[in-house]
Amino acid sequence: MKMEIKEAYNAVVISLIGEIIGGRKNAEFSEALHKFLAEGKKNVVVDLAETTYMDSSGIGMLIGGYTTMKNGGGALKLARLTDKIESLLVITKLNSIFESFETLDAALKSFS
Question: What are phi and psi for residue 103, nearest 5 degrees?
């Protein structure tokens, strides 16, 4: 998995590219979220448009990220889910936890 981070409007956008499976990148994701909170950046959108695969470790990473942001007074939202990732969230019933958006713009505007 590769992470690309950029800021847009009043949020941080984290694009996750490739396969989201266990490993060091999951810890880097968590560390980035803690850093954002320390800097007062509380709105995060995870862009999953280029995510090709996600296993249970990837789901755990997203849940951990959601919890980190919520406990820090922020929010983590998902954007541009692939059909596979959306199905995975429906099967695990996490679609009722995560706020997700079809476009990046819609996710960013939701923080207004």
Answer: -125, 160
